[in-house]
Every structure is written in structure tokens, then in C-alpha cells.
Amino acid sequence: MRKAGYISLHIKMTANTGSKSLRLRIAGQTMKCSTKGESVSLQEEVLPFPTAGGARTHVAGQTQDLHRNLTWKDAFWVTSGVPAGVLFTIGGVSATIGQPAWIIWILAILVGFAQCFTYAEISGLYPHKSGGASVYGALGWVRYSKFVAPVSVWCNWIAWSPMLALGTSLAAGYMLSNLFPADAAINTWQVTLLDLGFISKDLTLRINSTFVLAVIFLLITFKLQHSGASAAARTQRILGIASLTPLVVIALVPLFTGDMPSTNFLPLLPLMHDATGASVMGSWNSAGISTAMGAMFLACWSTFGFETAVCYTREFKNPQQDTFKAIVSSGLLCLFMFIAVPIAFQGELGLSGMLAPAIVDGSGVGAAMARFVGGGVVVFNAIVVMLVLSILLIVMTSMMGSSRTLYQASVDGWLPKYLSHVNEHGAPTRAMWTDLVFNLFLLLMSNYMAVLSISNVCYMIFVFLNLQSGWIHRLDRADWPRPYKCANWLLALGVLCGYLDLVFVGAGANFQGENTLRNGLIATFLIVPVFIYRHYWQDKGQFPASMRKDMELPHARAGVLPYLALLLAVAVIWISAKLTVIG
């Protein structure tokens, strides 16, 4: 059987050819190369030629690599777990803002959808890379700062990886609360290991039944991923159909029955608290606007997640077309789900129901949604089981995306070398093990909302850096082929959304707990010593050869603009934090 080969062309023209260009057509791809006497690296130089049977040779010095066996449909099903993110924060958003929660969800997913077009463009620039939008965005920043670029990659991973612990713990909570009474010993026993109150109030490390069952779910998910993305995608397709069904049913049933009184949605006044701590209707003063920022901060954590569709560019059979199709199709799915499900949920329960403790902490969301459908005990249990599957689906999505971010960050020289390994199935197993161990630690934590909020500070910083990389790439790599190029107004809208996201961080983070903003910023910069170890200790101050090729630029046209963008970002967060009023 003939094996796939790789083409690596490097052209150096020294003759006086003026400003003409040379076009090469290789394997159906037309590439334009400068002929101004500069060394030119082809953007597609590591793409394999497809062959019958899918066999492949490997880059010198490597025994395995990620396999090109996915289509955009596979990525769509992999990311179909993202809508389940609404189960994590639907109660928290309502507890923050009150009656206008359904408007917050609409605004949050619209912002997320507007951002996806920038992601689609920059991911097309690097069809030979895995790891998602943060990797492509980091390559825009690296020419201006070695330290800003790894922050982007790190913040993406630190935001996605905790989804493994959050998801499996929520699924375990659903199972335990439906199988056993709330006061049963299995639901109440707990062994406290360590008090972490200095990080967040009442935060501890502990072992209980939720931890044990969540670990079992986590190990099952790990096993399903061990055979590579293609096999996992097939499992995701099955789980996707099973898990999206209850969310769709829950979203549509109240719409058809019409059992959603307008009083559950109006008046659109923010939730405040009086001197005794009781919830009351507020007004749109500075405290009300600040509250809306806190709700947007939380809702964006769920609604932005479909950007993980571009994590699989290196594994797409046709990355030039599949990348755009994957993220836009996933975005359209999320656009529907993140609007319909919160509206149905709030319309059914009303404000008082949304503020119930079991809804706010997420443990009772599954049971509440199952009751919407009716049909007796059998239907109730079937819906709960499918909701558990939907949560495990987003856990699989998170593990696939976050492990590939670790893998590519290691290949590119951001993180330690040991993460570059993949097994015979093309699965980045050492990155997956790192995810697993990290989340076993997170599962010990007693307050998962604190974990979510801290990781979201990191996530929004990644989103900002990535959206700004769109215009940096436009300036610095204007002549690079782009399978998809978003309209200028969409690119500008993405830039604006990036700064708006930072407003949500500065003004809204501390609504989810005292010192959340501080803790999130500390978590953001934990990458610095890790990067110093990799870059200056392991690599002696040099990036890997493959990374240097991606960094090659005849002219860095962005000039001082990236630095000005960073200064403005710091000012936006600082001013937003100073002006916020927590009522």
C-alpha cells in the first residue's frame, strides 16, 4: 500500500525579479510566493497528500502524529455537547440578574456568534496545527511578545479543562439526587482534607459521594478518547443525538403548550438585595447595570464554548473547508439552544423557581427540566438519564479540545516537551493524562462555582487576545491564503466584542464571589514560570524549528498597535472594576 507523503518546499530567489510573484499549484492547491529575494515558506508545507487507505509517513524524528480523518460533521457532533453548558449556569445567571436573565442569554450568544467569524478566519491560516483558536491567535502575538502569546494558549486551556470536573460532578449530582433522598447517608457523608478559605469563602478540599462517582465518569470519558478523535467522534454522534433530544424537547414543549405567563419575563428589572439580604426588584442605576455585567460574565462562559470546533483543524480531511463549516454550524446550533432553553426554563419556573437553592447551585436543574415534560416516573427518569448523557458529552468535548491545546502548545514551544506525545491512534495521551490528574484535584473542591468563575476570568482574557489577533494577522499576513475571510465589519465587531468581554470581567467577576477577579488574574499568569522553564531551560531560548517557520514574516506591519491594544485592555478592566457597584 502506498504511503502518504509530505511536501516541504523552501524557495529562495536572489535574482532581480522585481515585485513579481510565483504561483505554484501542488496537489490541487494554488499558492502564491513572493519573489523579492526573500526566503519563502509555503503555508501548507506540512499537509499530507491523501491516499487510499489513509496510511501515512511521519515527520522526521516523530513516531506518531495527529491523524487527518475528521470531517466538519464529526467536529459538529464533538461540539454538540456545548449547549449542555446552559445546565451549569442557568441558575447562577438568574440568581445574579433576576427577571432579565432571558435577555442576558440572548445577548451572550449573539456576542459569541459574532466572534466566531474571526476564529474561522485565523484558523484557516494554519491548517497544519491543532489546539484551537488560542494557538492560531498566539501566533499573531508572538512577534510582539514572547510572554503574551503563551498567556493566550494557557488561558484557553485553564478555562476548558475544568469543564471535566464541573461536568462529571454535575452529572454525579444528578444521579445521586434522583436515586437517593437528600438526607440519605450517601448524599451527606464527607471527609474534609484541607481548608482553602484564603482563596474563596468556604472553599475546601473534600471527599464525598459526588467525588467518587464523578471520578468514575471521568475515567470512562478518558477511556472513550484513548482510541483517537475519529473513534471518539463516532461516540459523540451517538451521545449527541441522545443528549440533545431532551434539551430540544424541553425548549419546545413550553412553547407549544403556551404555559409561560408574561409575568415570568416582565418587568425587566435587575435583582437587588435589601438590608436583610432579601431579593427585591431594583432599577437600572449603576448597581443594576453592574449586576447585568455580572450576569453576562457568567452566561458568556457557557455561550462562547462552540469555538472549540476549530480545535480539530489538524485532523480535518479538508481543513480549508471543514474548519469554517464546523464552527458556523456549531454556532447556529448554540444560537438556537442558548435562546430557547433559558426562555423555556424561566417561562416554566418563574423568578421564584429560578432562585431555588437547587437551581442556583445546579444540582436540581435536571430534575426541574424533566418535570417540564411530564409523563410519569419512567419519562422523568429517562429525561434525567439523557441530561446526564448531555453533560458527559460536553465533558468529552472539553477533554478532546483541551488535550489538543496542551499538545499543540508543547509542539510550538509554550509548554513542557513531554506533552507532545501521541499514541498509535493519534490521541495526545500525555496531555489527556495531564487533564485527568488536574481535574481529579479540582473534583476535591467543595465549591465548583468558584472554580468556574476563576477559570472564566482566564477564558475572557483568551477571547480578547484572540479577537485582537484577527486584525494583527490581517496586517502582518495580508498576503497569506485565507480559505475564509470575514468581512471587515465583522472583524471590527470582533475587536469591539473583545473589549466588551473585558468589561464583563472587570465589572462582573466579583459578583460570583469576593476576590474572583484577583484570583483569575493570578491564574492567568501562572503560565509565565512554566513558559520560562520550557523556552529558556529546555529550548535554550529558541523556538522549535516548525514554530520558527510559522513565525517568519518579512514585515511586522502592526507596529506599536498590539502594545496600545494591551494598554487599553488593562485600562478597561481597571476602570470597569472601579466603577462597578455590588448591591
From TrEMBL:
One of its GO terms (cellular component) is plasma membrane. Pfam families: AA_permease_2. It is a multi-pass membrane protein. The keyword Cell membrane applies. The lineage of its organism: Bacteria, Pseudomonadati, Pseudomonadota, Betaproteobacteria, Neisseriales. GO terms for molecular function: transmembrane transporter activity. InterPro entries: AA/rel_permease1, APC_superfamily. It is found in: Cell membrane. Keywords: Cell membrane, Membrane, Transmembrane, Transmembrane helix. PANTHER family: AMINO ACID TRANSPORTER-RELATED, MEMBRANE PROTEIN. The chain crosses the membrane at residues 75-96, 102-120, 153-176, 203-222, 238-257, 289-312, 324-345, 377-400, 440-465, 486-508, 520-537, 558-577. Its main location: membrane. This is Amino acid permease-associated region.
